[in-house]
Amino acid sequence: MTWLVVAVGLILLVFLHELGHFGIALAVGLRPRSFYIGFPPAIAKIRRGGIEYGIGAIPLGGLVRIPGMHRPAGHDLETFMSPALREDACLAPLVQAARRALDREDFAGARALQPQLEEAVGAAKLSPRALRSARRALRDLEEGTGADAYWRAATWRRVAVIAAGPLTNVLVAFVILFAVYTTGGPTRNPSAEVAAVEPGSPAAAAGLRAGDRVVAVDGRHASTFDAVSRMIRASHGAPVSLTVERGGRRLTLGPRRTVFQGGHWIWGFNPAPLLVARSAGDAARSAASDMWGVVSSTGQTIGSLFAGRARGHIQSTVGIVRTSHSSLEVGFTWYLLIVGFVSMSLALLNLLPLLPLDGGHILFSLIEGVRRRALAREVYERFSVVGIALILLVFAIALSNDVSGVGPH
Predict the structure, then answer these.
(1) What is the pLDDT of residues 61-97, one digit of tens each?
(2) How many CB atoms lie within 10 A of CB 319?
(3) Which end of the chain is more exposed for a tag (fewer CB within 10 A), N or C?
(4) Residue 102 near residue 73 (C-beta atoms within 8 A)
């Protein structure tokens, strides 16, 4: 059940990110053509108001398809139509006419040819591959020459649509952290609740778990971590038993001998911080401080990565899921904190100035706004190759950390 809660939390963050893009695109007049959670092929889909809503089979993100992301070009049209042209040369006159119109930037003329070209493709006997490519060409032609094409929109509209996703994640992070701190957020003071158990320790051997609340040591009541710690340290290596509350029941674990470590006799577990509800002002300041901490630590990690010193601080989706699961086992408050931090991290990741990330699209929109002319698709594709390579490199490092156990525990 905990794994399901973790998965739902991550999917919800992606959904809200894409919903940010979707909502602002509608608000500024760039009507999306599809809205997916996950990437196609679709598991399920439905069309409403000219927009296709669906759930994709590849659960690695989400997709809001905004029409005309790139300035249409004759070369692109012919490239996508080439498989169909090889199978049916009768399509050539219309394709060439549309290409010439695009080359001279007669977008209205090219758009006028789209219905004829679509009819001709429908009548042609094409293989599935050629038909898919031809339909992609027709879709790009229709959307790229439309009045609501993304590439034709004012720079502020384009930036607003792209920035809406990351900014939604920033807002979600603040709301989650604010809610946690107003209802009972962690402080610097330890509680009697167990946050983590050290592998190979007496606590691990006795069966102590994260989320257990210690209520007694050797049968003597202990309501605070200080009392628990004092009694364990006074054992001087003798066997110790702990009474804990777990799932509404009381269990006695041990006895197990304490071990001498760091100048003290210990059982081998770490306490969770004490939870205290704060005023709205204090909660807002704490939430903002935590979010800025994510920003500064992310900046330091990225800077150190290029110097080869931050390898162990990066986590992939596998590590995030594992950390979220461990936090949920301790308590729902800790899980919500992790979700808030992940939402903030997701925003920062997407704001990196790399294509195909949101930050890359924002950067290119600003460049095109300054030069007053849209860049060609191939420019986007070349920079996307570099961006994807860097993203995959970081993901590979993060995945190796998660598999090998390097990094945060």
Answers:
(1) 788 999 999 999 999 999 999 999 999 999 999 999 9
(2) 20
(3) N
(4) yes
Query: Which pLDDT value is given to residue 300?
Result: 75
**Residues composing the chain:** 409
pLDDT in tens, 143-168: 999 999 999 999 999 999 999 999 99
Determine how β-strand 220-221 pairs with β-strand 185-197.
unpaired
Q: 156: Cβ–Cβ under 8 A, 6 or more apart, which residues?
A: none
Encode pLDDT of 235-283 as tens digits.
999 999 999 999 889 999 999 999 998 899 999 999 988 888 999 999 9
Q: What is the token pair recorded at 180?
A: 């946690």
- Residue 306 structure tokens: 């290029």
Domains and CATH numbers, the chain: 1-29+148-188+275-409 (no CATH), 31-65 (no CATH), 74-144 (no CATH), 199-267 (2.30.42.10)
Cβ neighbors of 137 (< 8 A, separation 6 or more) are 76, 77, 80, 81
Count of CB atoms situated within 10 Å of the CB of 108? 9
Q: Which helix (H) or strand (E) holds 254?
A: strand 249-257
Q: Which two tokens stand for residue 339?
A: 């979700």
Enter the tokens of residue 319: 């590590």
- Spacing of C-alpha 351 from chain mean position: 12
**What is the dihedral sign for C-alpha 371, 372, 378, 382?**
positive
Q: Is the peptide bond before 115 cis (omega within 30 degrees of 0)?
A: no
**Residue (of 334, 321, 337) closest to 399 by Cα position:** 321
Token look-up 């992939």 returns 316
187's enclosing H/E stretch is strand 185-197
Q: 399: burial class by Cβ within 10 Å (0-12, 13-18, 19+)?
A: middle
Nearest alpha carbon to residue 195 among 10, 333, 1:
333
- pLDDT at position 4: 66
Tell me the pTM.
Answer: 0.78
Please tell me the distance from the alpha carbon of residue 200 to that of residue 112, in angstroms, as a whole number.
Answer: 73
- Record the tokens describing residue 196, joined without a space: 């983590």
